[in-house]
TrEMBL record:
It comes from the Eukaryota. It comes from Triatoma infestans. This is Protein purity of essence isoform x3. InterPro entries: E3_Ub_ligase_UBR4_C (IPR025704), UBR4-like (IPR045189). Residues 1-176 form the E3 ubiquitin ligase UBR4 C-terminal domain.
Length: 177
């Protein structure tokens, strides 16, 4: 009987921060909204995979959905509204031009860190996302070249930069479709 339970996904459940997590939720979102939001930032996310009902009825909170994205988008538009000036004054083009000129990670690491952080904040508002999607800017090509530069560097700090680039690219590419 136990083997049949193991083969059935519905017979198992995931726990993160003592909350039962729906198997349909994306791991990245669970990490951000359940693990990091409740103080787990910096640590690896601990996930318990257990058989449902083995110790009686579950008493933990069941998380079936994460916060609605529309509410989050509205909040981002309000919180980061000052970032809209980057689209209006040509700031995004300047950031991309600077990124495209970086060739040496050792000498340009500080510039790269600040530029990526600023871009990361800029893509939180839809106006900047629309500008960055414009094909004449070459945003994706510039970000891919920067990604390649960071991958060639093996320091721990490069890992953080790579994650930032992927997050920025994910936002821009999701807006283009």
């Amino acid at each position: 009987e136990l083997i049949a339970l193991l083969d059935d996904d519905n017979g198992m459940e995931l726990l993160v921060n003592n909350k039962i997590i729906s198997l349909d939720l994306p791991v990245k979102e669970v990490y951000k909204k359940i693990w990091v939001a409740e103080g787990g930032e910096g640590d690896s996310m601990r996930v318990v995979y257990r058989m449902r009902g083995l110790l009686g009825d579950a008493t933990e909170e069941f998380i079936e959905t994460l916060h609605a994205k529309s509410q989050q988008e509205v909040n981002n538009e309000e919180v980061y509204k000052m970032a809209n000036v980057m689209a209006e004054c040509g700031g995004l083009e300047v950031l991309l031009r600077r990124l495209s000129q970086i060739r040496d990670m050792v000498r340009s690491k500080a510039l790269l860190q600040v530029t990526l952080k600023l871009l990361q904040l800029c893509v939180k508002v839809s106006k900047n996302q629309e500008v960055l999607c414009h094909p004449t800017l070459g945003t994706v090509v510039i970000l891919l070249n920067t990604f390649q530069l960071c991958v060639s560097d093996t320091t721990q700090q490069s890992t953080q930069l790579i994650e930032q680039i992927v997050e920025i690219m994910e936002t821009v590419l999701s807006k283009t479709t």
